Amino acid sequence: MAASRQPTRGLARTASLLSLLLGLLLLSGCETLSPGGEGPFAGAAGMPETAAEALSAGDSALSQGELDRALFFYVQAARMDPENAEAFTRIGGIHEARGDRQRAALAYRQALQADARHADALAGLGILLTRQRDYAEATELLRAAVREDPRLARAHNGLGVLADLRRDYPSAKRHYEAALALAPSSPMLHNNLGYSRYLAGDNAGAIAAFEKARERNPDYRLAWRNLALVYARQGRYRDALQALGKVQDLPEAYNDVGYIAMVSGRLDDAESFFDQALRLSPKHYALASDNAERVRALRGDR
């Protein structure tokens, strides 16, 4: 009897996989395979005949920024070879880039079912779970990713973020520096190191890292804002205003510096900045007015 049930289980697994692949492919504006096996992206050369060819076609499309086309070919690679962890990992990467965390996680888990030691899938799923605040499993996955491939900068970055959440700032620093050794031109990694140093109370280290981030990308808003945060915390208001002025208008900059001063307990400074924001934009900056009222309430002026 056991032998007679085996084909049924095999058919059920095949049906489940086909359902999964269909779910991973469906996007607005992206069709599925037609009954005859021709797809919307087959082109003049026809459909790839092997999983390796489909992966190559997907990579080519991805390099040209054609995400729908790349996704289609990666799904075909997974259909041809259901144990192809690389295909599922690349499917997960596209859904992650699109912000579809549910489909991305599904693809990464399918990749790990095919190969439990696939470093990119471990890192991808670990990062997704960090965003979903499942920190325990995320930590386990990212540590496994680094064990499998110590060269994965994003896995080190993810472990740095998790260490910051635990307030383990020495570990966070080690992971961010390991990531930067692999990707020294990344403004995001410099910014993350800077914010970690700020949390650790190392203002000089934070400023140095934020300055490196803005050097790598002068338009990186978060680095400018974080740099202003440290300056304002130090009472270097002119420097803070100059930093914020790079990425936002002046009334908003005055309001934001005032807010930092307020939460730091420097209420007179905060009120001065809120008043300046109101003078610069009395009709359009109600937020500064609300914040000024909060300062007066904190001081007991009303």
Textual characterization of the structure:
This is Tetratricopeptide repeat protein. TPR repeats lie at residues 51-84, 85-118, 119-152, 153-186, 187-220, 251-284. It comes from Halochromatium salexigens (Chromatium salexigens). The chain has 302 residues and is an all-alpha fold. Among the domains are: 185-244, Serine Threonine Protein Phosphatase 5, Tetratricopeptide repeat (Alpha Horseshoe); 249-302, Tetratricopeptide repeat domain (Serine Threonine Protein Phosphatase 5, Tetratricopeptide repeat, Alpha Horseshoe). 74% of the residues lie in helices and 0% in strands. It contains 16 helices and no strands. It has helices at 2-25, 51-63, 67-80, 85-97, 101-114, 119-131, 135-148, 153-165, 169-182, 187-199, 203-216, 221-233, 237-244, 250-263, 267-280, 286-299. Helix 4 packs parallel to helix 6, helix 6 runs parallel beside helix 8 and helix 8 packs parallel to helix 10 (187-199). The longest helix is centred in the first third of the chain and has 24 residues, at 2-25. The radius of gyration is 25 Å and the shape is elongated. Mean pLDDT is 84; it is low at 1-15 and 26-38.
Describe the structure concisely for a colleague:
The chain is built from 16 helices and no strands. The protein has 302 residues and is mainly α.
Name the CATH superfamily classification of the domain at 185-244: Tetratricopeptide repeat domain
Helix content: over 70%
**Averaged pLDDT:** 84
Query: Secondary-structure element sequence?
Result: HHHHHHHHHHHHHHHH
Termini separation (Å)?
84 Å
Treating each run of at least 4 consecutive H or I residues as one helix, how many helices? Answer: 16
What is the CATH class designation of the domain at 185-244?
Answer: Mainly Alpha
Which runs of at least 5 residues are low in confidence (pLDDT < 50)? 1-15, 26-38
Count of β-strands: 0
The Cα radius of gyration reads: 25 Å
Shape, per Cα inertia axes:
elongated
Strand content: under 5%
Q: Major sheet, described briefly?
A: none
CATH architecture descriptor of the domain at 185-244 = Alpha Horseshoe
CATH topology of the domain at 185-244: Serine Threonine Protein Phosphatase 5, Tetratricopeptide repeat
Backbone structural class: mainly alpha
TPR repeats: 51-84, 85-118, 119-152, 153-186, 187-220, 251-284
Pfam family, one: TPR_16
Organism: Halochromatium salexigens (Chromatium salexigens)
Protein name: Tetratricopeptide repeat protein
